[in-house]
Amino acid sequence: MENMSDVRIQVDRIDSEIVQLLSQRFACMTAAARIKGDRDTVRDEDRKSQVIQNVKDMAAQHGVPVPMVAAIWEMLVETSISYEFQKWDSIRDD
């Protein structure tokens, strides 16, 4: 990358890939909502901690700022849980 145009092209490409991966992640949340039989199992604090720790470990391995990645994943996981609750409820309201 030699100039800001090059940087922006790469950022846009990466953002597109991230959104595609988020689509896959949210599809997993839809599947989890379908599979989980009890609404109380949607929120799993042990699993949440495990996911965030896994990502922190990966961030450290790749030289990415761990606190920033942890903050992003905190929001991602909480958003995923909220989405899963919505899906869980809508599946059972039908």
Automatic annotation (TrEMBL):
PROSITE patterns linked to this entry: CHORISMATE_MUT_2 (PS51168)
The organism's place on the tree of life at top rank: Bacteria
Listed name of the protein: chorismate mutase
Keyword Isomerase among record annotations: yes
An annotated GO BP: chorismate metabolic process
Gene Ontology MF term list: chorismate mutase activity
EC number of the protein: 5.4.99.5
Entry-linked Pfam families: CM_2
Keywords carried by this UniProt record: Isomerase
Domain Chorismate mutase: 1-88
InterPro entries tied to this protein: Chorismate_II_sf, Chorismate_mutase-related, CM_dom_sf, CM_II_prokaryot
